[in-house]
TrEMBL record:
Keyword annotations of the record: Cell membrane, Membrane, Transmembrane, Transmembrane helix
Subcellular location as annotated: Cell membrane
Topology in membrane: Multi-pass membrane protein
The organism of origin for this protein: Gordonia rhizosphera NBRC 16068
Entry's family note: Belongs to the ABC-4 integral membrane protein family.
Protein name: ABC3 transporter permease C-terminal domain-containing protein
Gene Ontology cellular-component terms listed: plasma membrane
């Protein structure tokens, strides 16, 4: 009990130092824990959303309508546990002069699968046939509100509906006009839900449907999906794990999960470094007391416990702060991510295991940081320990003494102070470099992602793409675009496929290109464009299948399989696309001589005309695709911006704590300087010089550190989304470095103010007498 009271007295005597140490312990470890907890919360929110809204195991989309009873009969034959039919019509939304691709979904208002999560207003009601529920993401981009009217064009027929409610759908959580691009374009597709019978009446398709969603017994028997679709005019067969929104969030969370060890590791490393140095100061401050206890007969293990007790007293509130910081950062990061992706609610897990781990790491790191210097002191003879720290005999190297002395005695004193404490100076510089470098690396990441999107579109010669409502001959498809006013047309054939190599599989979208593509120009990084029986794959596909140029791959579609050879590898943000010659792609997709998509160069008026053509299902302009991707990148990088703000905040705390602890350890020095006649200006020069010297060196080290951190983070994005290069710009570093240097000067000026408030006599007496 006596030793515990002594420990409490020692901590109380530390005052501001104790508070700073508690904050350092909590901030460093809590930040790393908070990012990990946020990942768990987001994963739980994602799983709860898809489970709660009953995302279907399989979605079978047809190219034409068939009797609903036929699809239900097939579902029963496949032992479906739940099956529902829907009517889905492609169309347009016209708002003023703007037109947006639309998908109108006729569904049962009491649907059991792919249910709507109403975020505002009311759900579908069969007594209100033209009361629509609109997907909330599009409504936000289009500034659409409850009670507004929405003008639709469905197969050339105008239809006006009233917005009855807004909702998030598990199927259309990340609605996009171009699902081959894994990163969606927010606002590019308007999804409108209507009662199925009402949509059937409007389109005169009573009793006819073109979509079947169902749940199958688990585990799902192999081949059951394909056998269910045999003989049907299938346009798209989508198992649950390939559903676009789920596939995107899985990729995004995988990227986020890969970020966690890199970012958390930096925070933890810097935090451990500062904790270790701070605790070393505390233990060495007790050197004389510990030596006295040894001299009067206390056993070494008892004295060791005495040295560790102050650390334990600091560790407990530090662990509490770490838990609070963990929860706070998790809330901020998880809500930022949810806002970007669109989960309507966030599930806070408050994982006891993770919070317990954070607390244990905080306590363990604090005690371990005190144990090493304490054990070192215990090995000294009592008389040696009682003498205190040995006097420092230090002389600057001649070149440094001459350079600093020429700048004035204050600069010379500051230089000597930094160089005679190399361990403390180095640790402060490294911790600052880590915090600044992490912030800079996040800036580099944001800029590099944006540049990659620009580069991916820069080499393209098309201005729009048109997905046809039904396959037609290439001549007829070309004529549709020419009649609308297109100046250049490139008909292609596309469709879903499966690539297989080395027992690995990857879903793909096959694109059949002309022998010499003029409009769609994939960016080759190795190899050549495809010739007969060859495919050109993306970098992402090459990585997932571990394929290289010249290696064989099996291409499988609903109409058969074909052995192909990899001719080249392309860099594109459409990660699932696989390019083949038109002849090969049309043959493997069962569409010889036909086209179901167009690349074209056309003025804006032409794209509007094509949008209203019954032969065209959807038109997407290059400008809209690029703009949408930039918008999505900005929304998702808001998460990176949050991490950037956190890194700067924690770095600021580390900086202020380090400078403050250094000042508190040297109060007697500064009091002596004041006694010798140094005023505010000269003391400020000393402190600012010391702080700026450390800040400038840290900033210089932060540049390579930021680049080194940016490489693995960019690789993580490439694994989840698309390959990006690292494209650093001076502005990525200058903002973060300038902020750190301004904070450094502010901290030094605040330290000067504290020095000027010291009681000279009391401070000097405490140092040399007591």
């Amino acid at each position: 009990m006596l030793l515990l009271r002594k420990a409490m007295r020692d901590v109380a005597a530390m005052r501001i130092r104790a508070l700073l140490l508690i904050l350092v312990i909590g901030a460093g470890i809590g930040t790393a824990g908070g990012i990990a907890l946020a990942l768990q919360d987001v994963q739980a929110s994602r799983d709860a959303f898809y489970h709660g809204q009953a995302l279907a195991d399989l979605d079978v989309r047809l190219s034409r309508t068939v009797p609903a009873e036929d699809l239900i009969t097939r579902a029963r034959a496949a032992s479906a546990t739940v099956a529902e039919t829907r009517l889905i019509i492609d169309g347009l939304v016209a708002r003023g002069a703007d037109q947006t691709a639309a998908e109108v979904v006729g569904m049962d208002p009491q649907a059991r699968l792919n249910r709507l999560a109403i975020t505002d207003g009311q759900g579908l009601d069969p007594t209100d046939p033209l009361g629509a529920v609109v997907e909330a993401d599009y409504a936000g981009h289009a500034d659409l509100h409850l009670g507004d009217t929405l003008d639709l064009v469905l197969a050339g027929r105008p239809l006006t509906v009233r917005v009855r409610g807004l909702a998030r759908s598990p199927e259309y959580l990340m609605a996009t006009a171009n699902p081959e691009y894994l990163i969606p374009q927010p606002g590019s597709l308007a999804v409108v839900f209507l009662p199925k019978n009402a949509l059937a009446d409007v389109t005169a398709t009573g009793g006819q449907v073109n979509d079947l969603i169902l749940d199958l017994p688990h585990p799902i028997p192999p081949g059951s999906a394909q056998s269910l679709a045999d003989g049907l005019p299938v346009a798209k067969l989508t198992p649950r794990d390939q559903q676009y929104s789920l596939r995107f969030t899985n990729a995004d969370l995988r990227s986020f999960g890969l970020f966690v060890p890199v970012i958390g590791g930096v925070f933890a490393l810097v935090g451990f470094l500062l904790i270790g140095l701070s605790l070393r100061r505390i233990v060495h401050a007790q050197r004389r007391e510990l030596g006295t206890l040894l001299a009067i007969g206390y056993r070494r293990r008892t004295v060791l416990a005495t040295a560790l007790l102050p650390a334990a007293v600091l560790a407990l509130p530090g662990a509490a702060v770490a838990i609070s910081v963990t929860i706070g950062i998790a809330v901020v990061v998880a809500h930022t991510y949810a806002a970007a992706v669109g989960f309507p609610t966030i599930v806070a897990t408050y994982s006891p295991a993770l919070l317990g781990e954070v607390a244990a790491v905080a306590v363990g790191a604090t005690l371990a940081s005190a144990l090493l210097p304490a054990w070192t002191l215990m090995r000294l003879a009592p008389t040696q320990a009682m003498r205190g720290d040995p006097a420092v005999q230090f002389a600057l190297p001649p070149w440094l003494a001459g350079a600093s002395g020429a700048a004035g005695p204050e600069v010379g004193y500051a230089t000597r102070s930094l160089t005679r404490r190399p361990l403390l100076t180095a640790a402060t510089v490294v911790s600052l470099a880590g915090a600044i470098g992490l912030g800079a690396s996040l800036n580099v990441l944001i800029g590099s992602t944006t540049q990659t999107v620009d580069q991916s579109f820069a080499g393209q010669a098309w201005t729009a793409t048109a997905d046809l409502a039904h396959p037609m001959t290439t001549a007829a498809a070309t004529r549709v675009a020419r009649d609308a006013g297109a100046t250049a047309v490139e008909p292609v054939v596309t469709g879903p496929a499966l690539l297989q190599a080395h027992d690995r599989k990857a879903d793909a979208i096959v694109v059949g290109l002309p022998p010499v593509p003029q409009l769609q120009r994939p960016q080759l990084t190795s190899g050549l464009p495809p010739a007969a029986s060859q495919v050109m794959i993306t970098e992402q596909t090459a990585s997932s299948l571990q394929l290289g140029v010249g290696q064989p791959v099996t291409l499988t579609t609903s109409t058969g399989s074909r052995q192909m050879t990899v001719s080249g590898i392309a860099r594109t943000i459409a990660a699932t696309q696989v390019y083949a010659t038109y002849t090969d792609a049309a043959a493997v997709l069962g569409l010889p001589g036909q086209s179901n998509s167009l690349y074209l160069t056309a003025p804006e008026a032409t794209t509007r005309t094509l949008s209203t053509s019954p032969a065209v299902a959807r038109v997407t302009t290059l400008a809209a695709a690029r703009s949408g991707m930039h918008n999505l990148v900005r929304e998702l990088t808001s998460l990176i911006n949050v991490l950037l703000a956190i890194s700067l905040g924690v770095g600021a705390l580390f900086l202020v704590s380090s400078l403050a602890l250094s000042l508190l350890d040297r109060q007697a020095e500064f009091a002596t300087l004041r006694a010798l006649g140094y005023g505010r200006a000269r003391l400020a020069t000393i402190l600012v010089t010391e702080a700026l010297a450390q800040g400038v060196i840290a900033a210089a080290l932060a540049i390579p550190a930021g680049l080194l951190l940016a490489w693995p983070l960019a690789a993580r994005i490439g694994e989840a989304w698309f390959r990006i290069g690292v494209h650093p710009e001076p502005s990525d570093f200058t903002v973060v470095i300038a902020s750190a240097l301004v904070l450094t000067v502010a901290a030094a000026l605040y330290a000067t103010r504290q020095v000027m408030r010291l009681d000279i006599a009391t401070t000097v007496r405490a140092r040399f007498i007591g």
